[in-house]
Design goal:
- By secondary structure, this protein is mainly alpha-helical.
- The chain has 2 domains: about 70 residues, RNA polymerase sigma factor, region 2, helix turn helix motif (Rna Polymerase Sigma Factor, Chain: A), CATH 1.10.1740; about 90 residues, Orthogonal Bundle (Arc Repressor Mutant, subunit A).
- The chain is built from 10 helices and no strands.
- Helix 2 crosses helix 3 and helix 8 crosses helix 10.
- The longest helix is centred in the C-terminal third of the chain and has 23 residues.
């Protein structure tokens, strides 16, 4: 038991700040993050004999991640969206009010020249670039992109959101 305490102090305690920060980003609430880290710390202590070396930080954060998702499942109601719902929301935001209305993102991209857009898309990491191109240039829906790239639909949606965010950020930075 004494060795467990020493192992815990050397493996887990140095990473408590990172654990808390990660838990906070996952839960969005300081108190909830504290609960998650407390639970994760207990789990890490119980599992310390199973720690096989390698990155202690990654090991601790994996426990925090699992604890956070378990905590969220137990303490927050799940909101379920179907892919069709998300595509409808996306379509609604793309065309608020009337069909001629322009979103802020569309206005920004319209102001940028074609070469700047091509360069910004080319600079995206390959998974983001392929997802953005398949959706926004080729017009595939989420399910088709998932089939084409052999990834889950949730991954497609995440990659698309991140790709668009990076693209907009790059264009804004270049335009200033």
């Amino acid at each position: 038991m004494g060795d467990d305490h020493a192992s815990f102090r050397s493996v887990v305690l140095p990473h408590l700040d990172a654990a808390y920060n990660f838990a906070y980003w996952l839960t969005g609430n300081r108190t909830d993050a504290e609960d998650v880290v407390q639970n994760a710390s207990l789990r890490a202590f119980r599992a310390i004999r199973g720690y096989a070396g390698g990155s202690a930080r990654a090991w601790v954060l994996k426990i925090v991640r699992n604890s956070a998702y378990n905590w969220l499942r137990e303490n927050r109601p799940a909101i379920v969206f179907t892919v069709e719902d998300l595509e409808a929301v996306e379509a609604e935001h793309a065309k608020p009010g009337d069909a001629g209305a322009e979103t802020p993102e569309a206005a920004l991209i319209a102001k940028a020249d074609a070469e700047q857009i091509r360069a910004a898309i080319a600079a995206l990491p390959p998974p983001f670039r392929e997802t953005l191109v398949l959706r926004d240039i080729e017009g595939l829906d989420y399910r088709e992109i998932a089939d084409a790239t052999d990834v889950p639909i949730g991954t497609v949606m995440s990659r698309l959101a991140r790709a668009r965010g990076r693209l907009i950020t790059t264009i804004r930075e270049k335009g200033q």
